[in-house]
Design a protein that fits this description.
Blueprint: E1 7-10, H1 13-27, H2 30-34, E2 46-47, E3 53-56, H3 64-68
Antiparallel strand pairs: 1-3, 2-3
C-alpha cells in the first residue's frame, strides 16, 4: 500500500469546494441525500504556502484533465509557535 497522497491545487477555496462537493454527491453523503447531516465532503481543501488550495483527491472520480493536474508535493504554511 502506498503512502503517497494525491492532491489537486486550486486557485480559490470556492473552486476546490466545488470538486469536494461533487465528490460528496457522487458518494451519496447524507448532506446530499436528505439535505442535512454532518457529512458533505470526503476531504476538505487546505490552504498552501502560496495561498492556493490543495484538495486530497485519493479515491475521487477524476476526469482525464483532473488526473493530469495531480501532484504529490505540496507545501503548507508552518503553524505559528505557541
Amino acid at each position: 500500500m502506498s503512502d503517497t497522497i494525491n492532491y489537486i491545487i486550486y486557485d480559490t477555496l470556492e473552486d476546490a469546494l466545488v470538486k469536494a462537493d461533487a465528490e460528496g454527491l457522487r458518494r451519496g453523503f447524507a448532506y446530499h441525500k436528505v439535505g442535512g447531516g454532518t457529512t458533505r465532503y470526503s476531504t476538505y481543501p487546505k490552504e498552501t504556502s502560496s495561498g492556493k488550495f490543495a484538495l486530497v483527491v485519493d479515491g475521487y472520480e477524476l476526469t482525464t484533465d483532473e488526473e493530469s493536474k495531480i501532484t504529490t508535493t505540496v507545501t503548507f504554511p508552518t503553524p505559528p509557535e505557541a
